[in-house]
Each structure stands twice: as C-alpha cells, then as structure tokens.
Design a protein that fits this description.
Layout: E1 11-13, H1 15-28, E2 31-35, E3 46-49, E4 59-65, E5 68-73, H2 74-80, E6 83-91, E7 105-113, H3 116-120, E8 126-127
Parallel strand pairs: 1-6, 2-5
Antiparallel strand pairs: 2-3, 4-5, 4-8, 6-7
Length: about 130
Amino acid sequence: MPTAPVLTERVTATPEAIALLDRLAAKHGPLMLHLSGGCCDGSAPLCLPKGEFRLGGRDICIGKIGDTPFCMSDDTFQWWRNTQVILDVIQARGGGFSIEAPDGVRFTARARLFTDEELAGLPDPQPAESI
C-alpha cells in the first residue's frame, strides 16, 4: 500500500520571528513579507504593513506565517523551490524600509533542503494577488 506524501510547509519561522511578527502586527496591523532576489539583500525579507508594497504580476505567495503571507518573485522562487524558508531574527542595523529596523533587529531567511518525500507533498505557490 503506498504511503501518503509528507505534508511540509514551504515557509516556517523560529519562535523569535513569530514573536516579532506578533508584536509588529499589534502595532501596525496586518503584515506581509517579501523576499527580494537582489544581490545585496537576498536573504533579508522586507516586512511591511499589508497593502503598502505593490506586488507585481510575477510575485507569488509561498505560504504564511500565522496570518502573514510570505511572497517573492517567481524568478527568486526558482532559487528557493527545493528549500524550506525559515524566517529568523538577527541583531542588525538593516537599511531600507522594513518595519522591524528601528528595533535594531532584522528578519533573515535561512533555508534547509527538502527531502524527496517532502518535495512530493508540497503545495504549489499561489499568485500573490490572491493574498
């Protein structure tokens, strides 16, 4: 009898990242995360109040952390498609517009490779416009 595929999330978060998202959402309302594919900030997701970042037609949502969607462009996804994104927090002075920056911390995206079993059970990303 065949076994059911292992269901794994494409994106998850550390307890510290979840606590920071909760604190930021209490202050700013619903949030969204967007991971750019840029060379300089490719592992530092941008966190903004939902609706304050204009998503493009090629952006996708790979999952949610609580109620917070995690998005990236379809090009960036090609680099991350075989890995689980793990949202974490580090002590750092990040530049840019991410709303956690004034707290002296920065979200960061870590990764781990999916197993073959996990890959077989992964849901497809959704168009970001559906979030």
